[in-house]
Amino acid sequence: MADTIKIASWNINSVRFRIGIVERFLTEESPDILCLQETKVIDGDFPAAAFRELGYEHIVVHGQRMHHGVAIVSRVPLTEDDRLDWQANGEARHVGVRLANGLRLENVYVPAGGDVPDREANPKFGQKLDFIERMTRWSEALKVPTLLVGDFNIAPLECDVWNHKALLDVVSHTPIEVEALGRMQAAHDWVDLGRRFIPAPERCFTWWSYRAKDWAASDRGRRLDHMWASREVAAAATGHKVHESCRSWLKPSDHVPLVTEFAL
Q1: pTM assigned to the model
Q2: Four-way CATH pick for 4-263: 3.20.20.70, 3.30.70.20, 2.40.128.110, 3.60.10.10
């Protein structure tokens, strides 16, 4: 009988500030592995003790002071700690590991890209597109079973945002970003697990702005967070859930966790 493993991904928007809800999530949902983005902490200040107390003994961090940062905490052993510089400037936006069963797990925080969807007027937008292009070249060369998770900062489908027409010129849903992400998906024939288990056009959001007084009532969400799998890994996926209720927890992130279970 195959072993079951539960893998979660969450842009936590400061792991130290929100350690309380991270502990609650781990206690209630008990994933085997949690991938975090936007940890906003240097490696030495990562709150490893809190995770170890909950049984997450295996911790790999790639941190940066006050900005960005990614981490993987796990109950199962992790090897091959990789950090790829898809931003080409040293920012802490990726960490990758291998599990004992051979699965590669890649955790990424794609740049938001600023406010203006124009490379010339807004260099941050160009950096985002270049980041995706480097990930596309990496995807083309990928030969091992891989799960790619994280905050991609792109909502690719029309139904991945609260209002497609209203957001066509808003960074995260512009045609140029969607096309770039599509090329990356095709480069490895990635399976979008979110839309495999929650088929379009069913509502599926993972992010709601802090600007809304009542995020649930306005429900102006976007699906910015993703789990993509190699075909053989996707075939082993048995369930996927977006934990939307976490957006209402005390001191919430503007993102919510994704969890996929696999029979590997």
Answers
A1: 0.97
A2: 3.60.10.10
